[in-house]
Amino acid sequence: MAEQMKIYRVTDPEFKPYGRVIPMDASELIDAAKKQEMPVEGSKYEPSLASLEATAAMPWFTDEVYGEMPVQIGLCWGHNRQMNALEWHRDSEINVAVTDFVLILAKLDDLDADGRLDSAKCKMFQVKAGETVEVYATSLHFCPCTTDPAGFSCVVVLPKGTNVPLDKKPADALLFRKNKWLICHESAEGLKSRGVVAGIYGENWSL
């Protein structure tokens, strides 16, 4: 039987090295996100959705959270229950919980000298519907895990252009998309077949 990890809340002190809770009324943004149909299986990610960027949250995130830098508001939603991979950006990522979900996180300085990660260094954090969290640029993260058979939904705010295909082949094998460095678990055959470096060893955590 697979080992189970303790699940903290983002309001617990254990979350402080990884991010912070942002107090805001995200109801308009959440209502817009709920209009996206849930996938029958698997998970989807859209870096930018016009319906979300048309809400009052767009100028607020642009001006107040990202200091007048251009941003995009997208959505990650579906039925994921396993870590499989971890990514990081050069900027913080904002997650708005449309539903409850769990984030599996690690830190950049948790990486071994050879750039690999022992999954025992990861932690799980529950985010409850309605909460908004900032995940720091130094925090490794990936697709949220659902806590409900109906699926999860997470609004994702990032600098504009993040997570879209690269224009040229990078020297860094971990740079997978624009502003997206990615490593996958040794058992994640689908990601490895797409060229993702298998840089995570140990338990492939699941809910």
How would you sum up this structure, described in words?
The protein is globular. It is mainly β and 207 residues long. Strands 2-10-6-13-4-3 form a six-stranded antiparallel β-sheet. Strands 1, 7, 9, 11 and 12 form a five-stranded mixed β-sheet that branches. Strands 5, 8, 14, 15 and 16 form a five-stranded mixed β-sheet that branches. The model has no long low-confidence stretch (mean pLDDT 96). The protein has helices at 27-33, 50-53, 57-65, 189-193, and strands at residues 7-9, 19-21, 43-46, 71-78, 85-88, 93-97, 101-107, 117-118, 123-127, 132-135, 139-140, 145-146, 152-159, 175-177, 180-185, 197-201. The chain is built from four helices and 16 strands. The protein has a single domain, classed as Sandwich (Jelly Rolls), CATH 2.60.120. The longest helix is centred in the first third of the chain and has 9 residues, at 57-65.
